[in-house]
Structures are given as C-alpha cells and as structure tokens.
Amino acid sequence: MQEVKSHEQSIISFRQITNSQLSRTHVFRVGISHVITSITAQPATIFFVLFSLVLGSAIAFIVPPLRGPDEIAHFVRIYSYVHGELLPSAELDGRKGTFVKRELYHKLYFFKTAGEQFATARQEGMRYGQIMRLYDDLAVPLQDEVDGAAIFAPFAGTEGYNPVAYLPYIAAGIVGEKLDFPQLLLLMRLFGLVAFTAAVAYAIWVIPALKWSFVIIALLPVSLYNRSVLSADGAALSSAMVITALCLRSVARGPDQAWNRAFWMTLCALSKQAQIIFVLLELMISPMKELRQRWASVAYVILPSLILSPLWVFAVSADIAAWRLQLEEHHPPEHFDPVWKLVYMWDHPSHFPLAMWRAMRGWWHRLWQELIGILGWQDVLLQSWTYIILTGLLVLVPFQKIQLDGRTRVIIITGLTAAGYVVLVYLMGMSRRMLKKEGRRCSP
Question: d(Cα 254, Cα 256) in Å, to the nearest integer?
C-alpha cells in the first residue's frame, strides 16, 4: 500500500511540475506574442528605427574623423568628462579647456588639418583613403614616442555643455578607452546613434497622435546627421521629442507618471540651456483652473529643471563661445554678461526684433537649408529637390488633426514654447552685428 501511495504521489508531483512548466511556457509565449503584436501595431516606430539605424550607421562610418560640425570640440569635452572633470579644470588666455596626452593631441591636430585639406581638395580628386594612409605612417612614431607633458586643448565653445548631452559618448569613451582614436571616435558615434534613436523611438511609441510627423522630423538630414556624429544636438532633439510626446499623452489620458515627465524634462533642460523653456509644456496637461489642485505635481516635474539648469550655467561661468566673437575684434566683457544683455534689451527694445529681421532677411536661404540639413562641416549641400520635397512634407505636418481635449490650450502653450525657444536662443547668442556695433561704440 505504501508503494502504491508513493507511486501516486510521484504521479501527482510530476503532473504539478508539468503543469507548472506548461504554465510558464504559456505565459512566456503569450508575453512574446504581446510584444510582437505591440511592435507590429507601431509601423511608424519600426520604420523610424530601421531607417535611422541603417542610414545613421552609414553616416557614422562614411563621415571622416572630426568632419562633423565642431566634432573636435565635442570630443575634447567628452574626453574631460571621461577623465572625471565635471567642471573645466584648466584655462589659458581666457579660454577654458583640458590637458590631453601629447600623442592624442597630435592625432586630433592631424585629423583637424586633414579634414580642412580634404574639404578644399576633394573636388580635385582627393580621397580620404589617401589621408588615412598618411595617418598610418604618423601613428607608428607616435606610439614609440616617449610621453611628454600633456598639451592644453580648448573646449572651443563646448565648455557649457552638461554631461547629460554626452552620456552615450561618455559610456563609449570609458568602454573603448584603449582604442586608437579613429576607432574610439567611431564607437562613440555608434553609441550615440543607438541611444538617441532609442529615445526618439520611445517618443514615437508613446505619443497618441502625430507619429508620422515625428518620424519626418526625426529623419530630416539635420536630425539624422547630428545623431550620427558627436554632437549635443542629438540629446537635445531626442529629449525634446520625448517630453513633448509624454505631455501630449498626459493631455489625452490625464496626468500620470509625473516621475517620468520629471526625468525627461530634466534631461531636456540640461542638454542645452535654451531648452529650459520646455517646462511650459507641463502647463498644457490640464486646464489652468486645475493648476491649484495639481500644483505639487507641476512643481515635482519642473523644479529640477528650473534649479539645475541655472546652477550649471553659473558653475561654468556662462561664457559659452564668447571667444568666437573676439577673434575678429574686441568687445567689452560685459557684452557677454546675461544681465547686461537683459538691461540692454530693456533700454533698446527695438534692437532685438530688428536684428532678428535682418538675420531672416539676409540669411533666409541658408537658414532654410540648415533647417533641412547641411552636412559635413556645414559645407555639404544636398540636391535642391531634396530641400523642396522635405519642405513640402514639413508644411503638411501642421494640417494633421489631433483629437485631444483642450486643443486650444495645447496650441497656445506649444506656440509659446516654440516662440520662447527662438527668443532664448537669440538672447543667448545675441546678434553679431549688434555686438559689433555696440562694441565699436563702447570701445575707448
């Protein structure tokens, strides 16, 4: 009898184990099926990811080292972050920077001058393979060279960029620290491409409408190119698209996941100083009369941005790229003080709109092309028909209907955000013409 009971218990245990395994297998299959169904239900996301990774990878491999806009300056800033320098650690002749190994400095200088030579001689038949063969000859003695003192490398305008804008590149720099410079640069580009593509894909995934509009914007040559080379614009665009998508989703479904919006809002504000204006998007989530009830949620989302972004500007002294304007002629230092700029605008209210009008009137053709994308070191124009077709698609984007409650509120807040971004960019950069004029007037 005991043997029979033991046998029956074994059969029962076996059945329980089998049922448990079948249950886990079933759950796994259902989960996989749900993921596949969810993905196939998002054709815009799939289209974007495939095209972005394929075309972006091609750009990352094809574009010669340091031929992205200001790529050498971005690399030097990333290099400082990889080596633990959160704030600029060195300054020479009023320009902030860091010290790099002599071998690396020579390689950076080689590719910088090679890129300039390639830009002028490519029409005469020069190919970048010739330059790379020269680099192979250069690299051998450099490896045998006894390391001397480190050499100062200026940030050249990137001193104000927060490490948030470079997170994928910093990770690649740590992983590939022992790689030779061209391979390290390529690894950084690929890390950035994958990370920023994933962020934009997430934005397309969660936005309740305008999915294909987001795809068009994210696949513009300027957007794709900046995700494929070292740039702070990849982080700025992707984080801006994510926070816009999350706020629109909250409008459609009601305020939820404030922590998620707070996280992406902070990344957005820290990626570039002007993007602090995106905190206004939190105001479109619910009617204004409900702000009193949800003031704690609003503060939770926007306060980190309002605190951290100005603190960072203060920490880096807010002298981003001021040296560029000093290359042609001297301007009084106070002209680069944000407080001085605001006081000046108060005393001369017509100067800013006039400067903006002159810029639009004199540079509209170039600005139009840059909106779509000028590749290389801002010197590789696309075919004319490309700009016309993409402009047509961008013009059609605003005509897509959005089924949302409070559409008027959404339109007003997004319009204020866009206009505020333009104003902030112009206030931070100021018009070169205005600065020159006032510089001459104030100079002794």
Answer: 6
Nearest residue to 222 (alpha-carbon basis) of 205, 234, 240, 210? 234
> Whose structure tokens read 């995700």?
227
Is 103:82 a contact under the CB 8 Å cutoff?
no
Distances (CA, A) of 153 to 101, 107, 150, 322: 10, 12, 9, 17
Over range 360-373, report the average pLDDT. 85
CA distances from 229 to 115, 259, 382 (A): 15, 31, 18
CA distance 159 to 89: 10
* Local confidence band at 288 (pLDDT 50, 70, 90 cut-offs): confident
Identify the pLDDT of residue 220. 92
At residue 163, the pLDDT reads: 95
Strand partners, 153: 98
The count of C-alpha atoms lying within 13 angstroms of the C-alpha of 383, restricted to the half-sphere facing its C-beta, is 3
According to DSSP, the residues that pair with 99 across neighbouring strands are: 152
**Burial class for 13, CB neighbours closer than 10 Å (0-12, 13-18, 19+):** exposed
Query: Residue type for 397, please?
Result: V
Give the single-character DSSP code of 159: T
pTM higher than 0.85 for the full model? no
Report the pLDDT averaged over residues 136-155: 65
Rg (CA), the chain: 27
User: What is the torsional sign of CA 287, 289, 290, 292?
Assistant: positive
* Unique residue bearing structure tokens 């204020």: 416
- What 3-state DSSP class applies to 90? strand
How far is residue 165's CA from residue 144's CA, in Å, rounded to a whole number?
A: 35
The contacts of residue 275 (CB under 8 Å, 6+ apart) are 236, 239, 240, 268, 269, 421
Is residue 201 within 8 A of residue 49, CB to CB? The reply is yes
